[in-house]
Amino acid sequence: MTRESADHSTSEHGVESEEAVTDGGVEDVALDPWGSAAVSDYRKLFEQFGIEEFEQILGDVPAPHYLMRRSVIFGHRDYRRVLDAMHDDDPFAVLSGFMPTGDPHIGHKLVFDEIIWHQQQGGDAYGLIADLEAHSARGLSWDEIDEHARNYVLSLLALGFDPEEGTLYRQSTNREVQDLAFELGIEANFSELEAIYDFDGETDVSHMQSVVTQMADILYPQLDEPKPTVIPVGPDQDPHVRLARDLAARVRYFGVTEAYASFEVTADERELLAEAYETLTDRNPEETIRCRDAAAYLESEREAGATDVTATTIDSLVTMLNEAGKEPLRPRVRFVDRNATEEAFEGLIEAIDGEKRVYDEHIDAFDLAWDAAEELAREVELEYDGYGFLPPSSIYHRFMTGLTGGKMSSSIPASHISLLDDPEDGYDKVKAATTGGRQSAEEQRELGGKPDECPVYELYTYLLAGDDDEFAMEVYEECANGDRLCGGCKEQAAELIEEFLEDHQEKREEWADKLDELDIEFDSDR
């Protein structure tokens, strides 16, 4: 979710998702926010979890960041909502955070850059320190947390975060986040957390509480007003995003769905109703389509073997349609009462213009399009002191490979470069890094290197080439063609990482003198 730990590889710095083999022999991806395994095929995330390919929307992104252009940011969930706000100059927000359990390193820089880029595009930017999670899930002392929190914030500022235009906070000192977490916790239960996070009877309550606190973090930018909000994370954090989207819907006063009759149906049944209505209307455009007509149509389709929907689903729907009998089958939008107060429900009835029908727990409107109905429901909810949350969006970046191969891990110093490393140490780590080169220089010249398997080339792509795509491509092609040998390539990368660390640490020192001016406490009184 909204944090990256430094005592083990998470999100952007190496912890990828565990793969499990199902009974059928097909590998599934188990996304674990606290795990330490690896995703070997990112395409599985599109198929199994509904993450969409970022490349498909790249052309709509204004001045895309190089991480987007180079497919380091590879996926998204509902990011078009954020892009629409950018294009229309409407408010939007970006939030991500960091669990302060170690030093920030080059993996964390991915998320830093994503927050800063969205801020530069006009977004309200939020950077949070997940100190409650660090204390509950990792057992760090508050003194350790204070030190690491300071270091994360210093690096975020040194890389370009504007604190005057953005918000920095700690979970432990943000009462609004804690209050929101309490309210969100009412909508979640242990069975759900057990299923999502594999919690069991040994999981302590504070760890579970840290999860709902993260949900509150994700929705915090919308407390003042609902607005599209993007959460930049690694794919291992997707369970947090999905739970936050569910909770955002559960605390809404009203749900808005499409319907065709007075009774409630499932999503699969609604799809069947839509098919029946469209087909019967096309056949008899001048006649009123009634529920019993749709029942007869569905039964005939089932007998003809024209549908692959389960027999149980069809039977259930046919029964309801026959019970409704002569009731007209008509498309409408339905406002479902989820958590509305009596006053809010009455207010919504008054606000709906045109033909409508009021039931005990929902209202059907016949003259509203779905998007207009959704906006009206939110307006009424806000008028009667509801949240009106929009479902949060997310973007997903690939994990960095460790310099020694395998995952990048803070527990293996040689595998990563800390943003606090002495520049000469950073130089030495790159010089000692594993490469995608061949066994000999002669073989490299003949066959070319393997940049797609090279941690050093990743450094160019993710960091060292900066915004210069031509330079990144030049390194790639020279390696693949055999014109670039590993020794010279590592020397160039080592010099560049040394320069980066020198520059970054100079900027950290400049900000260190101004930390007291920020609205964030680094010395916990806990």
TrEMBL record:
Q: For this UniProt entry, what is the primary localization, expressed as one broad class?
A: cytoplasm
GO cellular component, alphabetical, reads: cytoplasm
Q: Where is this motif: 'HIGH' region?
A: 100-108
Q: What is its EC number?
A: 6.1.1.2
Give residue numbers for sequence motif 'KMSKS' region: 407-411
- Indicate where this protein resides in the cell: Cytoplasm
Biological process (GO) annotations held by this record are:
tryptophanyl-tRNA aminoacylation
Q: Which Gene3D superfamilies match?
A: HUPs, Tyrosyl-Transfer RNA Synthetase
The reactions it catalyses are: tRNA(Trp) + L-tryptophan + ATP = L-tryptophyl-tRNA(Trp) + AMP + diphosphate + H(+)
Tell me the keywords, alphabetical order.
Aminoacyl-tRNA synthetase, ATP-binding, Coiled coil, Cytoplasm, Ligase, Nucleotide-binding, Protein biosynthesis
**Biased composition regions of type Basic and acidic residues, renumbered to the chain:** 1-16
| Single GO molecular function | tryptophan-tRNA ligase activity
Disordered: annotated segments: 1-24
As recorded in UniProt, coiled-coil segments are: 490-521
Q: Which domain of life is it from?
A: Archaea
Q: Which InterPro entries match?
A: aa-tRNA-synth_Ic, Rossmann-like_a/b/a_fold, Trp-tRNA-ligase, Tryptophan-tRNA-ligase_arc
The UniProt entry, under HAMAP family, shows: Trp_tRNA_synth_A
What PANTHER family does the annotation carry?
Answer: TRYPTOPHAN--TRNA LIGASE, TRYPTOPHANYL-TRNA SYNTHETASE
Regarding protein family, the annotation reads: Belongs to the class-I aminoacyl-tRNA synthetase family.
**What function does this protein fulfil?**
Catalyzes the attachment of tryptophan to tRNA(Trp).
Q: What is this protein called?
A: Tryptophan--tRNA ligase
Which species does this protein come from? Halovenus carboxidivorans
Name of the coding gene: trpS
